[in-house]
Each structure stands twice: as C-alpha cells, then as structure tokens.
Amino acid sequence: MYDWPERHAEVDAQWFAVRDFLRVRGIAAPEALERNTGDLLDFWKRPALLFSQTCWGPMGEGLSGFVQVLGQPSYDGIEGGAGELYSSAIVMRREDVAAGQGVPAPDDDLPIMPLETMRGLRLAFNVPDSLSGFLGISQDLIAAGESIEIFSRLVPTGGHRASIRAVAAGRADIAAIDCMSWHLARRHEPPARELAVVGWTMRRRGLPFITARSTPPEIVETLRAALRATGLAIQGQ
C-alpha cells in the first residue's frame, strides 16, 4: 500500500526476503510482486491471493469475508504513528494557515479537529472506503458533533498523492493523509512542501497484511513467521 515508484527497490527487497523465507520452507512463492493488479478490491478477493496489504476500510465493508489477516506493520518512528496504530495528518495550503505553522501530532490517541477552520472547505479524498482518507475523518467529525457535511464539496482523487497535489494546486482546500503517506510525500512529492498540517485524526490500526481465506493454515503460519522474521510485522502478531 506504500509502494510508491520511489520505493519500488525497497519494497521489492522486502518481498524478496519474504519470498526466500517461504521458498526455503517449500512454498512456491512468486518471483516478483504483481503491480498490475487492476481493481484492488477484485484483486484482494482472488482465492489464490498469497500475500498483499489492504486497509481496514474495505475490511469493514465486506473484504474480511474473503481474506485472513497475517499481521500489522509498525508505524513507530513516523510522526502520527505508534506501534500498529496510525493517524492521518489533516493538511491545507501553507498560505491559508495562520503564520504557516504546522500542528504536531498529539501524544495520545485523541484527534485534533480544527472544526471552524474546516467549515465550508473542499475536502480532497482518495477513495470513499479509505479509513485514512475519508472514513476516519468522517467518524471523528461525528464524534465531535459534526459530519462530513461540514465541507462544502467532496473531491475524489483516487489516491493520497493525488489529494496532496489537488490541495496544493487549489482544486481542493484540505485533505486527510495517513501519516506514512505524509512522511513519504515530504520526501518525494514537491507539492507537499506547499502544505501545512492543521490537525490529526484519531489513531487507528494500520494497514494489515492479508492472504486469501482459502490459504491453508500451515501456509498462513509460515507467512506470519516470514513477516516477523523480516521485521515487516510487529512481533507477537
């Protein structure tokens, strides 16, 4: 899910480590990752799915009936993350933020929702079943006594990176970007430099690694062992 072009070599190396762990134990793991997946929801539902990563948004809307969870990545060391939990940075154009100041992530699990700042703005979001980009901020608004209708318009973009570009270019005013994507954007996406953090969503479980519901138990356990051994999943999961 964080397979940005700039990270392909790093992500490939992670898969090679998992692949080799599986092959040594007699599991015929694919040589390389499949990046031409087509519609992700259809891809995740394939009975032959060996290994992938998804979001808890689709999981809560029916995908959990097709897959098994293998483990959770760690967000330690990323602002807005803590262990298996992550939050989304709420970002706006720096020029529209008082003094251009950014809001640091809170030390607890509580959200920082600048309601009056958000009111009437255009929200850029990746996809409607994304926990980090849409469902999470919607839930936090409801908890604060508001709703997604606080925004004047919803602007679908298809991805967090595209949402950052939309806000920077003035096609939208605000977006919720999961903390890992925001971390990557500050390294690889120049328009991110034009944005500032004005709030944070509540911390939620990060993006789980999955396999098909039909994957045999012995392969599931080997996959979990591979994720722990390679450091991709938190120990004990």
Explain this structure to me?
This protein has a five-stranded mixed sheet with strand order 7-6-8-5-9. The mean pLDDT is 95. The chain contains eight helices and eleven strands. It is an alpha+beta fold. 32% of the residues lie in helices and 18% in strands. The radius of gyration is 18 Å and the shape is elongated.
Brief synopsis:
The chain is built from eight helices and eleven strands. With 237 residues, it is an alpha+beta fold.
How would you summarize the topology of this molecule?
Blueprint lengths: L7 H17 L15 H5 L7 E2 L2 H5 L6 E5 L9 E2 L2 E2 L1 E6 L21 H4 L3 E4 L5 H13 L9 E4 L3 H10 L4 E5 H10 L6 E6 L3 E2 L3 E4 L4 H13 L8
Parallel strand pairs: 6-7, 6-8
Antiparallel strand pairs: 1-11, 2-11, 3-4, 4-10, 5-8, 5-9
Helix pairs in contact: 1-8
Unreliable residue runs: none
Largest sheet: 5 strands, mixed
Order of helices and strands: HHEHEEEEHEHEHEHEEEH
What is the average per-residue confidence, as pLDDT, rounded to a whole number? 95
Structural class: alpha+beta
Helix content: 25-40%
Neighbour order of strands in the largest sheet: 7-6-8-5-9
List the keywords:
11 strands, alpha+beta, 8 helices, 237 residues, five-stranded mixed β-sheet, three-stranded antiparallel β-sheet, elongated
